[in-house]
Amino acid sequence: MVKSFKQFLIAGFMAFAPAYAEINDSEQNPNINQLEAQLIDLEKIRKVQQDEFGAKLEAMQPLMATMSADEQCLYQYLSIYKESYKGDYSQSINALKQTKALCETPEYKARVVQFLANLQVITGDFEPALKNLNTAIQITENTEDDYLRSLTNNVAAISYRLMNQDEIALKYADLLISGDFTEDDKCMGGFNKYRILMRQGKGAEYINEIEQAIERCEAVENHIASLFLQLDQVRYQFPQKDSHDSAQALQAVDTLESLEDEVIKTQFKNIKVYYHALMAHMYWIADMNKQAMSYGKLAIAENISIGESEQLILALNVLIQLSLEANTMQPAYLFLAKKNEIEKAVFERKLATQVAYYRVKHANLAQELQIEQLNQNNKLLVLENRLSVETAKKQQLMMLLIVSVLLLLGVWTYKIKKRHDYFKEVAEIDHLTKVFTRKAFEERMKQMMASCKEKQEPINLAIMDLDHFKNVNDQHGHLVGDWVLREVIITCENVADHDIMIARLGGEEFCIVSPGITHQKMIALMEKMRLAITELDCSPSGASFNITASFGISSNGFSGYKTSMLLTHADLALFEAKNKGRNQVVSYASLLKGNAVVRAS
């Protein structure tokens, strides 16, 4: 059984490695010796013939003392691959770094660094992972080694997908699908491509292609990839709670039950958690609350051993809703607190991948400019040597050229500074609504909370959620939805008559903070915002519809000077506003009447 989330990922990477029939590479490539050929042949059977792979590798161990640098490179690479199944990834990473120095042949070095990138993505060390992946890709682009090309394309597609770089991941997935590779490679190309497209809401456009990808993966017995694609189909193609379509939800349950035998057979707990979370979600939509609660609890119980995931968030959301509908506030609070904790961890991981990606991209740009600068300096030295023997007129020309080069370097330096400032702003400001991101919000809340606590001033926090916003995207498109998000924030900022801070928590959910005013004034301000949103003219978007919002409010009087408690209590009040019919403002104070609610100490 897979014992941790990291073990799930590394097992997944290894299970998804391309499988090739055993071929004697010494016959195909006369430039390598017999031992190197045997090691490359071993690499190609490591997935499909694991016992034979381990036995032959162990038999080569006595030859280590007589191996060349390249032979040691290949042998150590395969040995580390075998040992990494035990789960000591730090030791494997350190060993791969040492092995990389042994590799004289670029193709062998590419094998080491792409596997090193694999492990670094899994352990969350994203920046060096991207650098090593770039190295492997650059080497692979100049090789005719089909196995290495398929291996690197697989790693790139999976790594970039896990780091939410969808455009680049799709590029490498398409290379696997359209290239001259094995059916197993094409299965993995489809696996990465269509998981991304379904997550982006484009699954309906590729129904036939997704079915073909599932059939291809089944044909090569890659049941893990097939199951993930089928579970994604259920998640993204069947209804959400607002649709109230019980018949479709039960149809989704039937589809999931048809996959139960395959799910039970798999050793990947992540698939089982995903399956149970989806069953809970669909039973909840069908108003079969007992079954939904049972599957939801089963999902979070199984997921304890593999860490936080979006599947767990899906299950927790069902448990929160069921607890609120049953008016059992204590379990609702506990589930909500756990959900908030996990969402924060997921968000921070995604943010870390984004920051690492842009830092590496920025570093590559700086390196290109540095190379260009060195080229310019070399040209300048040549000119100086020529001008040293020429007339004063030519010396004046040299000075002119020097000034031009310095100006050019100044422009390059300015561009680098502007790009650095841009990436810093991207990390703090939501590009669509121009309000703070969640990460920036948390940093500023620490400062604001400390100041208010020291001065014993009040601080109020509200969570605003646009009602039925998914319907706007579904009926009018995402461009109209983006217009609504921007205009709602502008409306709120125009209405505010006090100092406020607005941050985007995710999707259509925003946080509004106002220090220094009473709780009643905060309620009045949120009511003004709610009315202004109700009166918002949406026709400039190109579509005719109305938009409303629900607000949940708490203050330090109920939640103390703790950001986590303010968010949790405001979220509970927001749930109450939704349950009462939406388009209203609810204070956490109203929940204290008649209910036992956890308060900050």
Q: What best-fitting shape do the alpha-carbon axes yield?
A: globular
Largest sheet descriptor: 5 strands, mixed
**CATH secondary-structure class of the domain at 438-591:** Alpha Beta
Number of DSSP-assigned strands? 5
Using only C-alpha atoms, the radius of gyration works out to: 29 Å
InterPro entries: Diguanylate_Cyclase, GGDEF_dom, Nucleotide_cyclase, Rev_trsase/Diguanyl_cyclase, TPR-like_helical_dom_sf
Pfam family, one: GGDEF
Organism: Marinicella litoralis
Keywords: Membrane, Signal, Transmembrane, Transmembrane helix
In words, what does this structure look like?
Residues 1-21 form the signal peptide. Its EC number is 2.7.7.65. The chain has 601 residues and is mainly alpha-helical. It is 70% helix and 5% strand. It has 27 helices and five strands. The chain has a five-stranded mixed β-sheet, with helices on both faces. A hairpin with a 2-residue loop joins strand 2 and strand 3 (509-515). The radius of gyration is 29 Å and the shape is globular. The model is unreliable at 1-15, 19-28 and 596-601 (pLDDT under 50).
Summarize the structure.
It contains 27 helices and five strands. With 601 residues, it is mainly alpha-helical. It has a five-stranded mixed β-sheet with strand order 2-3-1-4-5, sandwiched between helices.
SSE layout and pairing:
Blueprint lengths: L4 H11 L9 H4 L5 H12 L4 H10 L9 H15 L5 H12 L5 H17 L3 H15 L5 H17 L3 H13 L4 H17 L7 H13 L3 H15 L8 H13 L1 H6 L3 H17 L3 H14 L7 H16 L3 H59 L4 H37 L9 H18 L3 E8 L2 H8 L1 H18 L5 E6 L2 E7 L3 H16 L14 E7 H4 L3 H17 L5 E3 H4 L10
Parallel strand pairs: 4-5
Antiparallel strand pairs: 1-3, 1-4, 2-3
Helix pairs in contact: 3-4, 3-5, 5-6, 5-7, 6-7, 7-8, 7-9, 8-9, 8-19, 9-10, 9-11, 10-11, 11-12, 11-13, 12-13, 13-16, 14-16, 16-17, 16-18, 17-18, 18-19, 19-20, 19-26, 22-23, 23-24
Pfam family, one: GGDEF
Protein name: diguanylate cyclase
Keywords: Membrane, Signal, Transmembrane, Transmembrane helix
